[in-house]
Amino acid sequence: MYDIAIIGGGAAGLTAAIFARRTAPDAKIVLLDGAKKLGAKILISGGGRCNITHDVVTPGDFNGNRNAIAKVLRTFTVEQTIAWFAAMGVTMKCEETGKLFPTSDRAKTVLDALVGAADVELRTGVKVTEIGTAASRRLSRERPAPVLGDGGEDAARSAGETPAFRIDDSIDARVLILATGGRSIPKTGSDGTGYALARSLGHTVGEVFPALVPLVLEDGHWMANLSGTSLDAELSVRADTGRVLVRQRGSMLFTHFGLSGPVVLDISRHWIATRGQLFANFLPGETFESVESLLMRGNPRATVAGVMRGRVPERLLAILAGDAVPLGQLTKDERRKIVRAFVEMPMPVVRDRGFDFAEVTADGVPLAEIDLATMASRKRAGLYLCGEILDVDGRIGGYNFQWAWASGRLAGIHAAREASRSPERSDRA
Which domains does the chain have, with CATH numbers? Predict the structure, then answer.
């Protein structure tokens, strides 16, 4: 029988382990992970450098219930995160983008610090597929663990009973933390099994889908010839009515399969969720009117390519500018067609690249089912959830790690406090 069992050894799980140990130094704590080695996602994040957080993190950087997300983020700020890592020997540097990386430029520095600070029993290669009700000294095998919402929790605690969990018939724990991640990059261990565990414990799970994922263009499109070309662009997802649903600006990369780069990854979840039409403005900050005015004011003997040179990459300019026809010879319709190609180009996206290439998972366990002051489940007593398993996904740039640190810290602290209140721990002490 353990006081606390943590399922999932990623960023949120390791953070929960660290703060659970700090809160309850004598607690018996085990962390279980299905992978043979911990922290695969940490090691590959940020191109192997691990983008720990961002210099400014706000609820607006996330998708989900932003008021609820704010409650968690404010408990562990970026400044506190920096200080926490520094205390573990990991110093950071802030790059021009606002991303914070370890000064070593090695993700292993981050993982080694987290594992070293966890100070709990670590079991790798243990894939948890089932969680049942465990027996404890004051909780009979015949009586199930109380479920919140039916008065069972208060009744059980007043009777001196402690909710308990049996994990795959081999491990018993009084308090359980689910930090299993989502479905992104399943080869690292995030294969979605955590959602089944959450459902078995009374939670609902939304229809999860990839986020921060590259997008695939239709076969044979001319954009495939631009593979390797990058530029600053503004992308927008529009409804059938033409209304702009969301707009993002950043670096975009043409690839052999379609589109990638920060702005594509950021907007991908919105395209997937709405299935709207994706448009690109290759001259971010400019409008149809401003670009048309620029061409109308240009030298009538100049060409579109001559006026636009230096504003977009040459390979793209050669396609968008069309034939070398002097501006003065373009008809109004021809001019407007060229302008739209620069600022309102439809992007023929047919699908995303799926969970194998997604950095995070969108949707998950609703935050309404979580006490956000503690990360405790509102459905099952003794259960805590943190990290990517919840319905929270942020922009690229360290935001999702900040959610993992903040939610994992809360879960670890309050799970430890609950375990410490256990009558059985008092008897044992």
Answer: 2-209+360-428 (3.50.50.60), 215-352 (no CATH)
